[in-house]
Design goal:
The protein has two helices and nine strands, in the order αβββββββαββ. It has 159 residues and is mainly beta. Strand 1 and strand 2 form a beta hairpin.
């Protein structure tokens, strides 16, 4: 996992230029099947789009090598190699594991324009993605994206 120093980039309040794709799931929201093993917190995040409190997630400080999968459907989402310490209080990744692993939606909740990140397989809410914050230049990352992801939406599969 990459770490930053004490300098944090300016957080921009504009909408990301991530490609917004129409989301289509094999099931409607009414038919959506949720894993019965999900905790109440996981269900609240994945289904109801809640956000866990900052600095409380199980995977925030995880430094082990492996893959982060959707807690609902086990779809591979992120590699540990793409995880970095952004200082935001949630696990941060600079890119998804594959182009089909995620779906992106415009999120205008709470009077803000953001880009919501959802599982590409089941549609479960994961978090948000932010662009243009300076991470690529500051940490020499291959992208300037920060996927700010709720730990509750993830399961970690150790290598």
């Amino acid at each position: 996992m990459l770490r930053i120093g004490t300098q944090l980039p300016r957080l921009n309040s504009y909408i990301s230029n991530v490609a917004i794709r129409n989301f289509s799931s094999t099931m409607s929201n009414q038919q959506q099947q949720w894993n019965p093993k999900l905790t109440p917190e996981q269900l609240a995040v994945l289904r109801d789009k809640y956000t866990e409190r900052p600095n409380t997630g199980a995977y925030l400080n995880n430094k082990e090598q492996g893959t982060y999968n959707c807690a609902n459907c086990d779809n591979p989402l992120y590699s540990s190699g793409a995880k970095f310490d952004s200082g935001c209080g949630w696990p941060a990744f600079y890119q998804e594991i594959s182009k089909d692993s995620l779906q992106y939606h415009v999120d205008n909740a709470f009077g803000m324009k953001r880009v919501e990140v959802c599982c590409g397989k089941c549609g479960g809410h994961l978090g948000h993605v932010f662009e243009g914050e300076g991470w690529q230049k500051m940490l020499n990352l291959p992208t300037d994206s920060r996927h700010c992801i709720n730990s509750a939406s993830l399961n970690f599969e150790k290598k």
